[in-house]
Amino acid sequence: MKQTDKQKIHPLDGLLRTDRIPHIWCPGCGIGTAFSSCLIAMKESGIDLKKTVMVSGIGCTGRGAGYVNLDSYHTTHGRAIPFATGMKLANPELNVVVFSGDGDLFAIGGNHFIHAARRNVDLTIVCVNNFNYGMTGGQVAATTPYNARTTTTPSGNPESPFNLPLLAYASGATYVARWTILHARDLTESIEEAIVKRGFSFVEVLAPCPVNYGRRNREKPIDTLKIYQEKTIIKNEAHPLELDIDFERAIILGKFVDIDRPTWTDTYDKIYRHEDQLNEYKAAEA
Amino acid sequence: MRPAVLTGEHFMTGDVACAEGALAAGCLFFGGYPITPATEVAEHISAHLPEIGGTFIQMEDEIGAIASVIGASCAGLKSMTATSGPGFSLMMENVGLAICTETPCVIVNVQRAGPSTGLPTQGAQGDIMQAKWGSHGDYEIIALAPASPQEIFYQTIEAFNLSETYRVPVMIMTDEMIGHLSERVIIPDSKAIHTVSRPKPKGRKDRFKPFQPGPNGVAPMAIAGEGYNIHVTGLTHDEKGYPVMTVEAQEEMMTRLVQKIRQNLSHILHTEHYRLDDAEIVIVSYGVSSRTSLAAVDEAREQGIKAGLLRLITVWPFPEDEIKALADRVKGFVTVEINLGQIHKEVERCTGSKVPSILVGHSGGAIIPPERVIETLKNAFGRSGKS
Predict the structure, then answer these.
(1) Which of B21, B202, B211, B320 sees the fewest Cβ atoms within 10 Å?
(2) B16 with B130, same domain?
(3) What DSSP string describes A67-128?
(4) Is residue B311 part of a domain?
(5) What DSSP string describes B309-367?
(6) Residues of the domain holding A262
(7) Which long-range contacts (CB under 8 A, 24 or more apart) does A272-281 make?
């Protein structure tokens, strides 16, 4: 679509690969809102965007890297975090934001998540949690609520979902928050804080998937948003143990962890690189 | 502090020589995971990479290791990993990512006997076909097969050079015997070591197409943080790097990925000849098996069989033309390898039914002694043999 003078330019156009629009996301999908929040946060945070990279895995949210007009890497399923780890360690000046989905980051990629958090690699992880595998047509995920219907749990999910903020906290993340796409301002502020934060930061974004998850669980797009409005409580600093997702009860949102501890690069440099050595590299580079 | 190039005369194992070769080649990132018999590569390089400004990380598994290596390479560093059979299998999906995104990296496989856990401490050459087509889809790869600690030192440098030149993962397909063999390794002065870095883009950043090939079929590579705003994906993509889900885009991308190797064979392919000029019987071998074959050539000659050795330094791409040309003038081929006939079948494919082609193979766990090669030569091609 050609932009005429009458059409207003979208404030995020500079950060979008407009030549790749329209995107693949379905009507009513929450990823676009989470993606906008992420781009606004990047812009507002004041970080050097030339030194900012988006890394995604595979899935609906994994397509994010394909639409951002920055250096962007769309990797293999579940491996966005180890890829991003290599990138950050190779060039600590880069701001590395991983934008991916719950299936990618916590089922196939779960092991990498806990280890990157344990190491406190200075990454920002934005996880869009839509409670199912959207790209493949709505299968059960590690985040699907108990008894929810999906194409592979046609009579209800017999398993319990991960409490993602608890997992992040227990693994050593230094920043942990959860919002929904309905709480777009809080979400944007939170992602901004996560980007600026030195350390492993994790933001979970609850998002509707009306075409797959909603349809099979009698939730119209507007119903999901109503749930996000009526069944959520904002409770900053809530204990991560309280953060189970059970739509029969209230869902707690907020910022739960914001602590400081040395990053992987800090401790590696401290133990393996002595100051005179670092000065020598700097001299050699100059 | 130590220099990247450890000039001098040393006594070291193949695994350590591999790590030293990497340091000399300019490797600055290693993502690893322990596995016998490749662990010593990681152990040695973990101590010395930070001393020259590089970074070592032991990841949570081999999948993470190769993913971190590809990420580090996209951020601009020469990067590598080292593993053995089970780890090599785990890395395969991301090998495909490196091929599709044309990300240079070096993967060392110190082969042990498989399948599955196999014989963890005993060598084999059973992953040779996996090196070629272990990841899904169609592609061309480069794989080298060193036969001594000295050679693994040089081939690791060559692996980085080829990888950076062609933007392709390069595999060093060594084996437990060479990896754990201690021999003299002479490391020359750093000025005598030729290293290559990936082609860099020039011109306007906003017009740069990250996958538009240069004259040798290889596109210059922009790295993260240089301001090119590149998009890199494992989906089928066009020259801009954008996903395009059409048959035509697939054809165009695949042709480029395959042709950049196939049209540069004269630069990539290396073999070594031993008493081959007047040979009537060609022994084809590589890695540790080529060492036992060498002894067999001399012994066979003494017994009146005109044998010669064609040693594969590059295993993939395969030296088809050379073997086809030899098939026109010799009486037969014997392939010596520690598997049940992987390169043997490649040799047969090239020789057709022109001359007999025999395998001296072994299912893994031990070297093939020269006597077995000689016996086969005598039975098949000796005076009393069928010839």
Answers:
(1) B202
(2) yes
(3) TBSSEEEE-STT-HHHHHHHHHHH-TTSEEEEEEEHHIIIIITHHHHHHHHHHT-S-EEEEE
(4) yes
(5) EEEESEEES--HHHHHHHHTT-SEEEEEESSSSSHHHHHHHHHTTSS-EEEEE--SSS-
(6) 13-285
(7) A272/B50, A273/B50, A277/B1, A277/B51, A280/B1, A281/B53
CATH for A116: 3.40.50.970
Of B53, B60, B226, the CB nearest to A281: B53
Is residue A101 a part of any domain in this protein?
A: yes
Question: Would the pLDDT of B384 be above 90?
Answer: no
The CA R_g of chain B, rounded to the nearest whole Å, is: 21
Whether the CB of B74 is below 8 Å from some CB of chain A: the reply is yes
Give the C-alpha distances (Å, rounded to integers) separating B140 from A87, B198, B263, B267: 26, 18, 11, 15
Q: Are B141 and B314 in contact (CB under 8 A)?
A: no
Residue B114 maps to a domain: yes
Q: Which of A8-12, B190-194, B280-284 has the lowest mean pLDDT?
A: A8-12
Domain match, B317 and B182 both: no
Q: Which of B232, B235, B245 to mutate to test the interface with A (most CBs of A within 10 A)?
A: B232
Tell me whether residue A22 is in a domain. Answer: yes
Q: Domain check: are B286 and B179 in the same one?
A: no
Would you call A76 and B67 a contact, using CB atoms and an 8 Å cutoff? yes
pLDDT at A10: 84
Which secondary-structure segment (H or E) carries B377?
helix B370-381
B63: chain A residues, CB-CB within 8 Å: 78-79, 82
Residue B97 touches partner A, C-beta closer than 8 Å: yes
Least Cα separation, residue A158 to chain B (angstroms): 30
> Looking at CA atoms only, how far is residue A119 from chain B in angstroms?
10
Nearest-CA residue of chain B relative to A280?
B53
Query: pLDDT, tens digit, for every residue of B186-234?
Result: 999 999 999 999 999 998 998 999 999 998 999 999 999 999 999 999 9
Question: Residues B106-141: pLDDT tens digits?
Answer: 999 999 999 999 999 999 999 999 999 999 999 999
Q: Which of B96, B101, B224 sits opposite A87 (nearest CB)?
A: B224
Is the pLDDT reported for residue B372 higher than 60? yes
Q: B72 in contact with A at a CB cutoff of 8 Å?
A: yes
The answer to whether the pTM exceeds 0.95 is yes
Give the whole-angstrom CA distance, residue B367 versus residue A129: 53
At B372, which CATH number?
A: 3.40.50.920
Which of A17, A53, A89 has its CB closest to that of B224? A53
| Tally of structural domains, chain A | 1
A281: pLDDT confidence band, cut at 50, 70 and 90? low
Residues B278 and B187 in one domain: no
Using a CB-CB distance cutoff of 8 angstroms, which residues of chain B are in contact with residue A91? 75-77, 224-225
Per CB-CB distance under 8 Å, the chain A contacts of B64 are 79, 82, 85, 111-112, 115
Residue B142, in any domain of the structure = yes
Instruction: Give me chain B's average pLDDT, please.
Output: 97
3-class DSSP state of B5: coil
Last residue of a domain, one of B192, B208, B241: B192
CA A63 to CA A58: how far, in whole Å? 7
- Does any domain span residue A241? yes
Residue B148 domain-assigned (yes or no): yes
Number of domains in chain B: 2
The parent domain of residue B87 ranges over: 8-192
**Tens digits of per-residue pLDDT, A158-180?**
999 999 999 999 999 999 999 99
Examine residue A165 and state whether it is found in any structural domain, yes or no.
yes
Give the one of A55, A75, A87 whose C-beta lies nearest to B72's C-beta: A87
Domain boundary among B192, B209, B240: B192
Alpha carbon dihedral B66, B70, B73, B75, in 10-degree steps, equals -120
